Amino acid sequence: MKQYLVTAYDYTDEGALARRMGVRPHHLDAAKTLKENGNYIMGGAILNDEEKMIGSVMVLQFGNEEELDAWKQGEPYITQKIWESVDIKPFRVAAEVNK
User: Which of the residues 26, 46, 66, 83 has the least number of beta carbons within 10 Å of its own beta carbon?
Assistant: First the structure.
């Protein structure tokens, strides 16, 4: 499987954090499904200096680009306009360190 580093930053308008918190249960449910299917490696929230969530980092893996594209089309933080920018780069987990 190909691994990917996903770095995403939230919109910065006044209601952005409230929108994120409203969609968060759906995002976490989707992440649980990814984990069950072997696509989720790790992830978490990016925090600002006040420790408020302003984005996300995820390491995911998919068998092909079509699966990655399908994830992007169904990810709640993308479809519900929580993430303003999403950067996806090929990535490789350092397996030797994680043994």
Answer: 66
Q: Give the 3-state DSSP-derived string for the chain, with helices as H, strands as E and coil as C.
A: CEEEEEEEEECCCCCHHHHHHHHHHHHHHHHHHHHHCCCEEEEEEEECCCCCEEEEEEEEEECCHHHHHHHHHHCHHHHCCCEEEEEEEEECCCCCCCC
Q: pTM (2 decimals)?
A: 0.91
| CA nearest neighbour of 3 among 97, 92, 70 | 92
| Section 46-74 average pLDDT | 97
Structure tokens at 72: 């992007």
Return the structure tokens found at 44.
């978490």
